[in-house]
Design goal:
This protein is an alpha+beta fold. The chain folds into two domains: about 5-35; about 45-470, Outer membrane efflux proteins (OEP). Helix content is about 70%, strand content about 10%. It contains 14 helices and six strands. Strands 2-3-5-6 form a four-stranded antiparallel beta sheet, with no helix packed on it. Helix 12 (about 295-315) runs antiparallel to helix 13. The longest helix has about 70 residues, at about 135-205.
């Protein structure tokens, strides 16, 4: 055996051994396993659940609520006594010390009998307690903190419902675009086959150049539509990743079917009459505010502005506080001696003239309160307008669904007839292409009508505070 053949045989054995080790059961290449593990398949329920846990806006709303809760507790603590330990060290210059220490000017027998009260270097320590007896600003701050807590809770709930609405809507939009994209790809493949056939017929002299170009135009149109829809799918997928806080190195896929819970709710609305659909939004203001978290937050903001307006009047009221001090005599040592002076003070502060600062602050807070009132009423009316528009859209889309189904049935039948006639040479290529495009448009309209109705239903449930019904089983 030659040396070259021996080297080749050795290399072959080594290669086969490595291949057997790599592809032994349970020893799949790490690259393949990483690709499989990198893809996460999510149902709509799982997508919403993940958004409620990881979405930054939802987390921000929860932290804002916790802050408001602790702010309320802090407001209550302002009414409690405050105790502090105060200690100071003071040194005065020689001239000032000489002027203050009168003992040095007394004769010796008398000087020794009078205790020294002035020291060049002195230390003083005391325990001080302060208790507010009457402070209207502190009392009103509790009401402000409570309103802020209610507003934070409403804002957190509003953010939560808004994120659920966006996740569900984006999820359904991706499903819609994927269904449309699949249909368009099927027609693109068909257009490719027809275009290739037309090219062969043209080269064989059986088609004119205009007929071949007509098939080429149809193919390019289908290709352009597919590219456009692929871009839409990518954009909405990125939006869903943003809502779910998906990292750049993660990959997700969604289920290809509309969740059964959503289909059941849409069937309920489809079976309703137009009057029954309109009756869904016939609620009074209090009922609408109760179910709509965004309106609750707006009303809480109005209440907070009202308390700030009331708080402006507290600057004109007196403040009463109680102070008590337990100290040790000031001397020239840090040691605490036996003599402990005690001081009890009742303080009254009454503003008499503040150069119209209080008056201007009251007027400013009043107009801020009125502004918040008008903003709230405007948001309430806008919500009612959106409800009416959404129900009108549902009524229109319900009719369009019926029309799209009939149109699809007709276009499918017409396409089959024209296809048979084309095989018999009874119709032109243009007629066949038109029939094919009509069928494609009918299918696209049917898909759009189906998903648009569901999306409008999601919007209605969001405005009525019922969006949780769509994803909770």
């Amino acid at each position: 055996m030659s040396f070259t053949r021996l080297v080749d045989l050795t290399a072959t054995v080594i290669f086969l051994s490595l291949t057997f080790m790599l592809f032994e059961p349970g020893m799949a290449p790490a690259v393949f396993s990483q690709e499989v593990e990198a893809v996460t398949y999510l149902t709509m329920e799982q997508a919403v659940s993940r958004a409620l846990v990881k979405n930054n806006q939802v987390l921000s709303g929860r932290f804002a609520l916790q802050k408001a809760i602790w702010d309320k507790r802090n407001a209550w603590t302002q009414l409690l006594p405050y105790v502090s330990l105060n200690s100071r060290m003071m040194r005065i210059d020689d001239q000032t010390f000489a002027e203050r220490d009168f003992r040095r000017y007394l004769p010796e027998p008398i000087r020794s009998e009078i205790p020294q009260t002035v020291f060049q270097e002195s230390f003083y320590t005391s325990l001080d307690l302060t208790l507010p007896v009457f402070n209207s600003a502190l009392l009103n701050s509790i009401a402000i903190a409570n309103s802020n807590k209610n507003m934070a809770a409403s804002m957190s709930q509003s953010t939560r419902q808004n994120i659920i609405y966006q996740v569900v809507s984006t999820y359904l939009t991706i499903l819609k675009n994927k269904d449309i994209l699949q249909l368009q790809r099927d027609y693109l493949d068909l257009s490719q086959m027809n275009y290739d056939k037309a090219e062969r017929m043209y080269n064989a002299g059986r088609f004119s150049k205009s007929e071949a170009l007509r098939w080429k135009v149809d193919f390019q149109q289908q290709k352009s539509v597919v590219v456009s829809n692929e871009a839409q799918v990518r954009s909405h997928r990125k939006l869903l990743n943003r809502l779910l806080n998906i990292k750049f190195d993660e990959e997700i896929e969604i289920q290809s079917d509309v969740p059964q819970q959503v289909e059941n709710e849409s069937q309920k609305l489809l079976q309703m009459t137009n009057d029954e659909l309109l009756h869904l939004i016939e609620v009074n203001d209090e009922q609408l505010i109760k179910v709509n978290a965004a309106l609750q937050a707006a009303r809480s903001n109005t209440e907070t502005s009202k308390h700030f307006y009331q708080n402006a009047y507290t600057s004109c009221l007196p403040n009463v506080s109680l102070s008590y001090s337990y100290g040790w005599r000031e001397n020239n040592t840090v040691a605490l001696d036996d003599y402990s002076p005690r001081t009890l003070m009742l303080n009254l502060q009454m503003p008499l003239f503040t150069s119209f600062q209080n008056y201007t602050a009251i007027k400013s807070s009043y107009y801020q309160y009125r502004q918040s009132q008008e903003d709230f009423y405007d948001q309430l009316q806008n919500t009612r307008f959106f409800l009416t528009e959404t129900v009108n859209k549902l009524i229109e889309l319900k009719t369009q669904r019926e029309l799209s189904q009939v149109s699809l049935e007709y276009s499918d039948l017409n396409y089959r007839i024209v296809e048979q006639q084309k095989e018999q040479g009874l119709v032109s290529n243009l007629d066949f292409i038109d029939a094919k495009l009509n069928l494609q448009n009918a299918k696209l309209n049917d898909i759009s009508a189906h998903y648009d109705f569901i999306t409008a239903m999601v919007e209605l449930y969001y405005l009525l505070g019922k969006v949780d019904v769509l994803w909770r089983k």
